[in-house]
Amino acid sequence: SPPQDSSDDIEDVSLFDADDDVSRRSKKSKIRHPVASFFHLFFRVSAIAVYLLCELLTSSFIACMVTIILLLSCDFWAVKNVTGRLMVGLRWWNQVDDDGRSHWVFEARKVPAQGGKSSSEAESRIFWLGLITCPMIWVIFAFSALFSFKVKWLAVVAMGVVLQGANLYGYIRCKVGSRKNLTSMATNYLGKQFLRQVSAQGFGILR
User: Fold this and answer.
1) What is the rounded CA–CA span in Å between residue 165 and residue 194?
2) pLDDT of the chain along its 207 residues, tens only?
3) Does some domain include residue 87?
4) Number of domain units in the chain
């Protein structure tokens, strides 16, 4: 009868819309770059694990130090050059112009107005969680080494704070974008000096 047909039509449209919403949500939550997401956490978590367990695994401080610094250097390069660009569409780098002046560039991928692909919510959570949490852990390690008089570990934990803190600062600047009123001129100057020293140390290690 006609009333039954009209009710069937309404139910079909409702179910279709629900399925479409579910598919949209699944696309947003899907991890599009599983390899990049894995290595975004692998190097930094491995460096923390080696720092915590090295005294149980080996008695050689040199071996532990080299391993941790190597992992931190790989993490610095991977996060700066690969995972930030793929997972959240952000990147930062140093550029030297024709006059020989060195300046820092912070860039964010433009999101199309209609029909464009946005960053995956799952990847964004993974990226920012790893980016923020791990430097905080290294800061805790630094205070722990200082107050427990583990002087030989201070250089290692300082490297962790500097390298991972540099990426954190760079990507926060990328996220903020052109809203320069959020930072003062003094903060910008200190940040540039900080990044210049970090890059010199990081690239020196990679060489």
Assistant:
1) 10
2) 455 444 444 333 333 344 444 444 545 568 889 999 999 999 999 999 999 998 888 888 999 999 999 999 999 999 999 999 999 989 898 888 878 788 888 888 776 555 455 578 889 999 999 999 999 999 999 999 999 888 889 999 999 999 999 999 999 988 886 455 344 444 555 566 667 766 666 555 555
3) yes
4) 1
- Is there a contact between 76 and 165 (Cβ–Cβ < 8 Å)? no
Residue 136 lies in a domain: yes
User: Tokens 């490297």 identify what position?
Assistant: 159
Question: What number of CA atoms fall less than 13 Å from residue 87's CA on the CB side?
Answer: 28
- 88 in a structural domain: yes
Tokens of 171: 């990507």
Within a domain: 25: no
pTM for the full predicted model: 0.69
Dig out the tokens for 88 from the structure: 């959240």
Single-letter amino acid code for the residue at 78: A
| C-alpha closest to that of 162 among 133, 198, 187 | 198
- Measured in Å, how far apart are the chain's first and last C-alpha atoms? 80
What does the longest C-alpha to C-alpha distance in the chain come to? Answer: 86
